[in-house]
Amino acid sequence: MLLSLVLHTYSMRYLLPSVVLLGTAPTYVLAWGVWRLLSAFLPARFYQALDDRLYCVYQSMVLFFFENYTGVQILLYGDLPKNKENIIYLANHQSTVDWIVADILAIRQNALGHVRYVLKEGLKWLPLYGCYFAQHGGIYVKRSAKFNEKEMRNKLQSYVDAGTPMYLVIFPEGTRYNPEQTKVLSASQAFAAQRGLAVLKHVLTPRIKATHVAFDCMKNYLDAIYDVTVVYEGKDDGGQRRESPTMTDFLCKECPKIHIHIDRIDKKDVPEEQEHMRRWLHERFEIKDKMLIEFYESPDPERRKRFPGKSINSKLSIKKTLPSMLILSGLTAGMLMTDAGRKLYVNTWIYGTLLGCLWVTIKA
Question: Which of 59, 199, 270, 292 has the fewest CB atoms within 10 Å distance of its CB?
Fold first, then answer.
């Protein structure tokens, strides 16, 4: 019985982070809403600057739990500039934690507030967050034939015209890779073979539309493209490719290491015409696939379970994350200590979600 209790407690380590991250959402949205109203008659750059700062505060709290709390070891390979840049971030997609990896890199460049995502359409219905991500500069897109190119172009052009700092995160595969979902992998491989493209094993065939539109709109505004390849090293995977950890698994400390390879590509080396870019993007994913094959399958133990080149063990100082966690948690706790505060808190959850859904419906 004691062993069962210990095991149950061990498996519940995600509970504290979940309560804090979700529990502080109304506080954050209220702070953002107040600033949105106050800045209504100010130049857009003033709103954007403080919104980026608020976003940085919240995401720093997220990283407190996903880095400092879990104690995960971050191993960086390749080229990560120290200074912030306007970039498109292209990465393999395998886990809900992939969104956090973009934050992990951005905070090391002091660009955390500039992170904006290209998101699948269904996420716009998330309570509170769905509406806010769009307000922060996120772009919701539909897949395949339903992809609205004009809408994405208009949004990106407005950000460029406003001088909005861009750390635009795109996952070109469009869905998460899972080695246990063999039908998805087989369909992806068949799609590549039909078009005369290399068949990939550890990544899915990338889709070009969102990447092409983003680059075409921002090519004169960008500094570079970051080609990012990520591996989550599990405790008991034996070096074999298995399903990547969920956020819950990650917060339960089931992933002791993240290997992140960054290849910084100058924008002048990216083809502009769509078909040429399709080939280029597929070639980038071929490179990812070869690195992942070597990571998991190399007969040389010195080359297995690591990426090529020198790795840097990058540790995030708790000084960058703990203050944000204490501020947001303290404000939330203070709100919940009074009747009026509790009523405001609950109403924010309810009416904030309803108004957010109404807003995204009108914008659809």
Answer: 199
State how far the Cα of 222 lies from the Cα of 266, in Å rounded to an integer: 9
User: Which residues of the chain have a pLDDT value below 50?
Assistant: 1-9
Q: Which of 356, 352, 354 is nearest to 26 (CA)?
A: 352
Strands, E assignment, the chain: 73-78, 87-91, 115-120, 139-141, 167-170, 224-233, 257-266, 311-314
Write the DSSP string, 266-309: EGGGS--SHHHHHHHHHHHHHHHHHHHHHHHH-SSTTTTTS-SS
Is residue 167 within 8 Å of residue 111, measured between CB atoms? Answer: yes
Q: Which residues share a beta bridge with 263?
A: 227
235 vs 12, 59, 69, 152, CA distance in Å? 18, 26, 17, 40
Strands (E), 190-267: 224-233, 257-266
d(CA 227, CA 283): 11
Q: Say what the pLDDT of residue 8 is.
A: 45
Q: Using DSSP, state whether 330 is helix, strand or coil.
A: helix
Q: Which two tokens stand for residue 126?
A: 């998330």
Query: Which phi and psi angles does 304 have, rounded to 5°?
Result: -85, 150
Give me 212's structure tokens: 């092409």
Q: What three-state secondary structure class fits 170? A: strand
- pTM of this structure: 0.93
202-211 burial, b at 16+ Cβ within 10 Å, e below that, comes to bbbbbbbbbb
What pLDDT, in 10s, does the model give residues 193-217?
999 999 999 999 999 999 999 999 9
Half-sphere exposure of residue 94: CA atoms within 13 angstroms, side-chain side: 23
Question: What is the rounded CA–CA span in Å between residue 90 and residue 3?
Answer: 44
